[in-house]
Amino acid sequence: MALIDKLVLDLDPLRTSREFRYIFTARVVSLFGLGFLVVAVPLQVYRLTGSTAQVAAVSAVLGVTTFAATFAGGVLADRYDRRRVIALARGTAGVAFAVLAVNAFLPDPKMWVVYVAAVIDGVCGGISATALMAVTPSLLPREKMAAAGALMALTGDLGAMIGPALGGVVIATGGVGVAYALAAFTTAITTFCITRLPALPPTHVADESPLRSVVSGFRYAASNRVLGGVLVCGFVTMLLAGWSVLVPEYATEVLGAGPSVVGLLYTAPAVGAVIGSLTSGWTGRLRRSGQAVFVLMAVSAAGLAGAGLTATVAVAVIGLAAHGFGDALTDIVRYATVQKHTSDEYRGRIAAVWAAQVTAGASVGAVVAGAVATSVPISAALPAYGAVGLVVTALLWTTLRTLRRLDEGSSLERVV
């Protein structure tokens, strides 16, 4: 039982912090609402235009605006009350979702409304996600950062699996207008939860222009070898985020499988990630967190390599699940390390770099995976892709010495 207690997800942040419970509830509700949008927006765009290119264009608008807004969110979170920043961003997004619902119920829905809503959603989402990450260390003690990261990761993984599925059911029974209305409703709940938090102003506000503020954030990260090392490792995890582009051809040409197996392969990493989050209790007691980051990155890369070693569905599923397992735990440990080693006056801007990595990860990884697929036969693509990750991880192990030697047990007095 003692071993199980050490492994199981640490729920102390929910038990001990009323404010964190509000944050957690807001995130859970928001993820389900956004899950409805993930299905409703592309489906409505395709129905209105009959064009996959238009679907891609709306997705690109959302992605670009989200990426850009993360840096704006970082600056805002380091200058103003973070509670107010998040509440205003989510409230504005909720209005946009309500407008989408009204537009969907019109006899002749307008595409320009969808594009405008995508811009607003991207801006608000980028700002609120960045500010939210900057808030958590103000609500919990330092030693509970890993537990908070695990809880946030678990909600993200479950939301990604359940939200779109529920969205599909809602659209099938009530149409996209109902899905948009529910997204607006859940966003209103999220906004209410955020307003229940105390005021959360930054401890220090620098007197500099927004652009210089962003630059100083990057300079701060580069000057902190632990923080900079963790963020560099984040870029490597981005390189491995494009595995999904290899799955359709691999399943068809190598496994000889149909759509049901393709769906299983896409689901496997999410299942592994959930298992990783549920068994993350040990991460809160880590002393050698830097070494753990490297080991877990290797597990993630090895999972991808192993998924393609034999032309069998079972091995592919297990390998991809191992990739998701390692990836989730890597993010949890990195999240805790970033939060512990970031000064409060820079939390928003460092959170922006983190959020930008997440936003751009799939796109950057897809480019790398595509390059691998054009260089080797598809039967060798997954092993080669994973091998690239292992090689880069080994290089970082040898070069990022400060992160590798990090001993959290001997540096607890350096609370930032």
Summarize the topology:
Elements lengths: L1 H6 L4 H5 L1 H32 L2 H26 L4 H24 L5 H25 L9 H30 L1 H20 L14 H14 L1 H15 L7 H8 L4 H20 L10 H19 L5 H28 L6 H29 L2 H22 L1 H4 L12
Helix pairs in contact: 3-4, 3-7, 3-8, 4-6, 4-15, 5-6, 5-8, 6-15, 7-8, 7-12, 7-14, 10-13, 10-14, 10-15, 10-16, 11-12, 11-16, 12-14, 13-14, 13-16, 15-16
Membrane topology: Multi-pass membrane protein
Keywords: Cell membrane, Membrane, Transmembrane, Transmembrane helix, Transport
Protein name: Major facilitator transporter
Structure write-up:
It is a single chain. By secondary structure, this protein is an all-alpha fold. It folds into two domains: about 1-200, MFS general substrate transporter like domains (Growth Hormone, Chain: A), CATH 1.20.1250; about 215-410, MFS general substrate transporter like domains (Growth Hormone, Chain: A). About 80% of the residues lie in helices and about 0% in strands. The chain has helices spanning about 1-5, 10-15, 20-50, 50-75, 80-105, 110-135, 145-175, 175-195, 210-225, 225-240, 245-255, 260-280, 290-305, 315-340, 345-375, 380-400, 400-405. The protein is globular. Mean pLDDT is about 85; it is low at about 410-415.
